[in-house]
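Hey L., structure's done. Input below.
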Amino acid sequence: MKIYPNLILEALRNVRYPGSGKDIVEEGMVEDNIRIDGNKVSFSLIFDRPNSPFIKSVVKAAETAILTYVGSEVEIQGNISVKMKEPVRTEPPKLLPDVKNIIAVSSGKGGVGKSTVAANLAVSLAQQGYKVGLLDADIYGPSMPKMFHMEDARPVAETVGDRELIIPEERYGVKLLSIGFFVDKDSAVVWRGSMASNAIRQLIADAQWGELDYFIIDFPPGTSDIHLTLIQSLGITGAIVVSTPQEVALADARKGISLFTGDKVNVPILGLVENMSWFTPAELPSNRYYLFGKEGVKRLAEQMDVPLLGQIPIVQSICEGGDAGEPVALNPESVTGLAFRSLAESVVKQVDWRNKHLPPTQKVEVTKQ
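Output:
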């Protein structure tokens, strides 16, 4: 008698799986590769979990069904092997499905002008016609409300579909949220890491950000739970690391870079920004005084093989603009405005380059308004 795989399958249709009442073929428990060598038959049965109480009884019933419906001369090769069903792995839903690019602006240490760079980058991108959002993720030292002259802003929640969502504030063409909108500006935020991380996640997931070309996140300085929360919660397009040229800052910048480039994180570095590169007095516009060292970040970029996105000089108007809530990027023809416009153009080019080197299904198209 010639034995065929379909004869084995027909015999196994007589075996019911107690967990569902369906036969084991309909239940998808019989692996496709039934092996036949003369009158010797071997195959595998697939179960949901290794501690299923029905494994032994179903295996015995399968052996009996084959001997009964195919023939007693059939020899089942060894024992019927048992395998476990592979768990179904699904990607978690994106927190920001309508955001095309998420840019992390980070620094290894505080005081290097990271928030100033993030604010002016966001404004510069908006001035170039992109839809831009800015999240102030510096829980313990939020500065965006001051830099955008919105210290008294109190975002409200609105019903969107079946959810209550926070509506971001908007100024200079940038949608903005900060923990500074929800706490007393004169009181310290004394929160444990988990509480701070939950607050940041809420500002992302429970806010109506809408469609954005660029979502800029002003990370806290250093490395912390908040960094891990943001990296694990969002598909970050790339990171920008800000530093001053001095060696102390560069040492911390290296640590900041390693946070993103580690094997378990693997966020691309779009490039470095050198802030406070030099000082030029108004009365001597052709002179440059390197107060914190010369081109330290440029050398670091070369060592790390990443782009130098821009060099921002020390200019009084940058400080005055931040204090007044009027970022200098609002004047794109000024010396500082040109510096930030050039930075924004470099960021766009780096993001575009990255997207062109992704598989087609992962590419994004960014269009101006």
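The chain is about 30% helix and 20% strand. Confidence is low (pLDDT under 50) at residues 359-369.

-- N.
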